[in-house]
Design brief:
The protein has 378 residues and is an all-alpha fold. The longest helix is centred in the middle third of the chain and has 70 residues. The protein is elongated and about 170 Å long.
Length: 378
């Protein structure tokens, strides 16, 4: 008896254990059915198509359209507070449903991406560590890491050098553009100055042709070389006048004159020596020419020292002088000597032709005279 009761108890107990689970499943099914009915009613109140066919913008537009019709404060003849309350609840329900659908779709997309990533990981190569360090280097991971660091240092150095090169090219291009612009402006200024000078010169010539300068005050009188210059300091003006009256000349002008006179004397002396020698020169004459060239070179060395001193004291850079070269001076003298010899040769040839012409003319006159006397005696 007890065994039968125990068996009935064990048979009935599983039904009691499964009852709560079956009730929860039934409640969930009924809840989903009621929720679906409420959503369909909400879509119907907002006059929207079926679920999932409208976006948030369309739902908002439908809600505003219905609010204009049924809001109590709209003033429309169809205003109804109870109906508007239902419409507002339907609007919130539809928005909640759209948000749920959106989150569900995002979750599904994320799950798909994770599945694809798992597939890719399943097909990835076994030696994954070779995909690090941008595929650079070989050997153990520590060796590859050191090689990769050196590669990054080299790459950074190359990038810095490339950046500096571009900056230098840019600076050079800007400098070239500035030089071109300055040259263009300078050329324009020169053209304007030349045009003004030509215009002034033409006006002066026209005035001279009309005789406007003939009746000027002070005509025929010497110019006053010490006219006051308003742009010069009076003290400087007076000092310059005193120095000029006493025959003072700046040192660099005196040195320049001395250099010019010295080189002219040396050139004339060597030119005279070359003129005395023959063309072509004999062996003894060639030795004499070398001796005179060596002496001329010594004089040039002294003169070049004077040129250095002159360049140190000359106030203008354009007035500085270069050293005199023995090779250039000798070539110039030889070229001048050849020109002089050719000129002498042409002069002798011209005199010889003139003498021949004179002798031929005198002979012809003498023969004519003899012929005339013979005819006269006949």
């Amino acid at each position: 008896m007890s065994c039968l009761v125990l068996m009935r108890f064990h048979i009935v107990e599983p039904h009691r254990a499964l009852f709560p689970l079956s009730c929860s499943l039934t409640w969930r099914a009924l809840s989903s059915v009621s929720i679906s009915r409420i959503l369909r009613e909400s879509y119907r109140l907002l006059q929207l198509p079926d679920e999932g066919a409208s976006g948030p913008a369309a739902v908002k537009e439908a809600y505003l359209r219905m609010a204009k019709l049924y809001h109590p404060d709209s003033g429309a003849p169809t205003a109804d507070a109870a109906l508007f309350s239902q419409i507002e609840d339907a609007y919130r329900a539809v928005l909640a449903d759209l948000a749920r659908q959106n989150s569900t779709s995002q979750y599904t997309q994320q799950m798909q991406e994770e599945e694809e990533e798992d597939k890719v990981k399943g097909h990835a190569p076994q030696h994954r560590h070779y995909l690090s360090f941008e595929g650079m280097g070989s050997g153990t991971p520590s060796q590859r890491e050191r090689q990769y660091r050196q590669f990054r240092v080299d790459r950074a150095t190359d990038q810095v050098l490339e950046y500096r090169r571009k900056e230098m090219e840019k600076a050079a291009a800007d400098e070239g553009a500035m030089v071109t612009r300055d040259a263009r402006l300078r050329s324009k200024q020169i053209k304007i100055t030349q045009a003004v000078e030509r215009l002034v010169e033409d006006l002066i010539q026209e005035s001279m042709a009309r005789g406007d300068f003939q009746s000027l005050s002070g005509a025929g009188k010497p110019l006053n070389k010490f006219d006051y210059n308003p742009y010069m300091d009076p003290m400087t003006h007076n000092l310059n006048r005193i120095l000029i009256d006493n025959g003072y000349q700046p040192e660099w002008i005196i040195v320049q004159k001395e250099i010019r006179e010295t080189i002219e004397k040396l050139r004339a002396k060597l030119q005279e020596v070359r003129a005395r020698l023959g063309e072509p020169m004999r062996h003894s004459e060639a030795l004499q020419w070398k001796e005179h060239c060596a002496a001329f070179d010594e004089e040039l060395v002294k003169l070049n020292k004077t040129v250095d001193n002159y360049n140190l004291i000359v106030p203008l850079l354009s007035r500085q002088m270069v050293h005199f070269s023995l090779k250039r001076e000798v070539e110039k003298i030889q070229k001048t000597d050849q020109m002089l010899r050719q000129e002498k040769e042409r002069e002798r040839e011209r005199r010889r032709k003139e003498e021949m012409r004179t002798a031929r003319t005198s002979q012809h006159n003498r023969q004519g005279l003899i012929t005339w006397m013979q005819n006269l005696l006949k």
